[in-house]
Design goal:
260 residues, alpha/beta, eight-stranded mixed sheet, 27% helix, 29% strand
Length: 260
């Protein structure tokens, strides 16, 4: 089963970093968050990736073109008058990666539609290139195959960050209380499994996958939720990036389920 990763947006909410690189190429612990996501899937044996690139897509292509150099110890010897390259140590991945330029302004559904030729008529997984998670991919796939619907998304509980107010129409605050576990809302965390029939719901580049396609699937009882109770964190802002950086630096990043 192939893994589609959406990696083409502008990342405007983390512009401190995204003005220089695509958001999926922003680094955590010296490696792009895209790499962290791929390592999760690879841990469960899913090693075929289709990257939906767009904004600064050449940087994603260059990363994979030079991946061998990034992960190797190399000596460049110019003493003979020309370049000799010796590789001392290398770490390879069992990956097959297809990077597709899906357009600069294409919406999420349009990006998925543009890679249809690389997916074929088979179920596939899809996620966003800006969130890490410790979800069990194998259990997610088993859940999807068991229920028989066209689509599965992963849901997580997003905690309420602020105090709760009860306000009248006139603007009077009738009560105030701190947030509690009961205030958390379920959100779409990505990490989806999709049947190829969903391509019929994707009209063109302007299709936003999270709007009409998912709404229609839900209305037709073709969308299921796999509830994940473990760790999940997106990287929409610089503050969220720092949270993830601190976790990685601590040596106990929850999403690092792989060895090495």
């Amino acid at each position: 089963m192939k893994v589609v990763i959406l990696a083409g947006g502008f990342g405007t909410r983390i512009s401190e970093e995204s003005q220089f690189r695509p958001k999926p190429m922003i680094e955590l612990g010296g490696m792009p968050i895209l790499w962290h996501i791929m390592k999760l899937y690879s841990h469960y044996g899913y090693n075929e990736f289709v990257i939906c690139a767009g904004y600064k897509q050449q940087m994603i292509k260059k990363f994979f073109a030079d991946y061998f150099l990034y992960t190797s110890d190399i000596t460049y010897d110019y003493s003979t008058g020309y370049s000799n390259l010796t590789v001392h140590r290398t770490v390879s991945e069992p990956w097959r990666v297809t990077v597709v330029d899906t357009g600069l302004n294409t919406m999420t559904g349009g990006r998925i539609k543009r890679v249809q030729a690389y997916i074929g008529n088979a179920p596939f997984m899809m996620t966003y290139g800006d969130a890490v998670c410790d979800i069990n991919i194998e259990k997610l796939v088993q859940f999807h195959l068991a229920h028989g619907r066209l689509a599965t998304l992963s849901s997580v509980q997003q905690k309420q960050q602020k105090g709760i107010l009860d306000i009248t129409e006139q603007g009077s605050v009738k009560s105030f209380r701190e947030k509690s576990a009961n205030d958390a809302a379920l959100i779409n965390a990505g990490f989806m499994v999709l049947q190829p029939e969903i391509f019929a719901l994707l009209k063109n580049d302007s299709t936003i996958f999270e709007q009409e396609p998912l709404e229609r699937l839900a209305a037709e009882d073709q969308l299921m939720s796999y509830h994940h109770t473990g760790f999940w964190q997106c990287m929409d802002t610089e503050r969220e990036k720092q949270i993830l950086e601190r976790l990685w630096a601590s040596g106990s990043a929850p999403w690092k389920v792989w060895d090495g």
